[in-house]
């Protein structure tokens, strides 16, 4: 009798839990539908911004311990939902005709980007979101001409994907400290300090920097990448770089897109820190003054591991920066894309 009651209660709880996750996913679908109708834009879009503020609230109520998609349960239906968006972006990138004069940039997880310019496809800090990642890794390896990795943190660097790219004969650039942990491979290009290369008509310049909130260069070896695409567009991808410290570009090169990481690059810009001396927008302005980009993209927002650990999802910070900074800026949700028109 007792065991029958316990089994009945467990069944009821499981059903209630399934109901709760279904309701939560339906809400997520409704926010994604708003973004579908309001795609990335450097102009103001209040409906788009409201959807992101909804995502802030969703993630903070959904992924933390004891919540419907507690990330301790891995993988769960939220990861599968995100994976479907990434698979769709991959399919778009695979099918894109590769017009010679446009640059298309897809937002992948976490801060990962896929860039297509002409026939060239560059992957930056790409990571799969599901443990059964082999198919994803092989698909990315078949698609990209080169994989760039800024540093060895797990939300930017997936050794399985690096292995898949090397097995497919695709070059992989990464910090020398991360490369030293892998078997030697002719397609592995360690970056110690500065390295230039050309891959599939993309001119690539890799430079060492300092990771956000790190004491110095050796704390977390990190490389940031400047890319001059065959379409004539140029971009700089920071990863988790503290862009207020060592940060430069090729003199005279016009940069169409600068991608900077979330929140504060160090404690000097962190609200409430005893060492705070300026605002977050002042930090971003330092990057703008050095690089003079035509467009700015805020990356790394809502990284779910950080949210699980108690940090806010922070899209609200990106929205505030977009309003505060004069350079046209934007951020994207996983799976979204931006298309840069031909340079006049
Ligand atoms: Zn990092």
Task: Write up this protein.
By secondary structure, the protein is α/β, with parallel strands linked by helices. Helix content is about 35%, strand content about 20%. It has helices spanning about 1-35, 45-60, 75-95, 135-145, 160-165, 175-180, 280-290, 305-310, 315-325; strands at about 105, 115, 120-125, 145-150, 170-175, 190, 195-200, 200-210, 220-230, 235, 255-260, 295-300, 330, 335-340. α5 links the parallel β4 and β5 (about 170-175). α1 (about 1-35) packs antiparallel against α2 (about 45-60). The radius of gyration is 21 Å and the shape is globular. Bound molecules: zinc ion. Zinc ion binds near residues 151, 153, 156, 211 and 240.
Briefly characterize the structure.
With 344 residues, the protein is of the alpha/beta class. The longest helix has 36 residues, at 2-37.
